[in-house]
Design goal:
Helix content is about 15%, strand content about 35%. The protein is an alpha+beta fold. It has a 3-stranded antiparallel beta sheet with strand order 1-2-5. Strands 3-4 form a two-stranded antiparallel ribbon. The longest helix has 12 residues. The chain starts with 10 loop residues before the first strand and ends in a 5-residue tail after the last helix. The relative contact order is 0.26.
């Protein structure tokens, strides 16, 4: 695990699986004002987006525009976002869980 695990301002999401592995997301809320959790389970499909950093919510373009969540950049401008995602092995999953639970910033 990186020594800069809890860089100032980082947010962390962990989804632990029964086999000990875990899905992991690290992002900066200063870059993404929202974090979406999306789930669907029907006869035809099953999917989970447990932590999706975003600049807007899921209410559709017009509603997000009304709320002021639509961001635009001009031609030749650029923007950078920092996101770290992955699957953690059981030993790393346990270490991450402990770090998140012991974080005193919460």
């Amino acid at each position: 695990m990186n020594s800069n695990f809890f860089d100032k301002g980082d947010a962390h999401s962990l989804l632990c699986y029964p086999d000990g592995y875990a899905g992991y997301v690290k992002y900066k809320p200063s870059e993404f004002e929202h974090n979406i959790r999306w789930m669907v389970k029907t006869y035809e499909e099953q999917a989970l987006g447990f932590s999706m950093p975003s600049t807007a919510q899921t209410d559709g373009y017009i509603e997000e525009q009304r709320k002021g969540n639509i961001k635009s950049i001009l031609p030749n401008e650029s923007v950078e976002f920092s996101v770290e995602t992955g699957i953690l092995r059981p030993v790393d999953s346990e270490e991450m869980k402990e770090k998140i639970q012991n974080d005193k910033r919460i």
